[in-house]
Design goal:
The protein is α/β, with parallel strands linked by helices. The protein has 7 helices and 8 strands, in the order βββαβββαβαβαααα. 45% of the residues lie in helices and 24% in strands. The chain has a 5-stranded mixed beta sheet. Strands 1-2-3 form a 3-stranded antiparallel beta sheet, with no helix packed on it. α5 packs across α6. The two termini are 40 Å apart.
Amino acid sequence: MAIKNLCCDILTRFYVVSGEILRVGLFSFINPVKIQSSLQKPAKIILGIDPGTLVMGYGIIEINGEHIKMKEMQVLKLSGKKDNYERLQLIHQKVEELIKKFKPHEFAIEAPFFGKNVQSMLKLGRAQGVAIAAAMSAGLPVTEYSPKKVKQSITGNGNADKIQVWKMLQQLLALKEEPKYYDATDALAVAVCHHFQINSAIGKMAKGFNGWDDFIKKNPGRLKK
């Protein structure tokens, strides 16, 4: 086994054995290549859902630094001839499949739009509930956004229509294809909205501090010793 002497001084010697770290003395040598790879922020995957009793939209995005990439955007079509509870089961199964396939870190869903038809609202609420239940069973953090909040986050206008939202998504994600279902684009918008809200929250937390030293100085109680 080749052993390369990297450094020698009065206190200690450092060796690397087959690319691994060997500690001798008071200090240990850290491979700079490993430091660089560990500092690279891992990609984050967000699953967005637009709930529905007949059509459920879903969109999955991957975040790498400032880059947003769409991994999939599609719908689950449910036959109106099926029993209501059977449709709920299919929604639950589909969300489970998406979580297993894409392994998202976050789950975001659009809140039901409150209308005058109580029965329709009840059915839509159930569809949302089973989707949330599937995410919670997988241990995912769940966040809910109102349709107005999603539109505001994507376009800057809470009253924007579906076409305006999609056109903005095309610019943000560099998409060229035209959607077959706006339920799918709504779900994609929910995922992107969630990403924007997370970044906004992080930005607000960091605001007002000039580096870590300043943060620790102003928050001594949050330092663990």
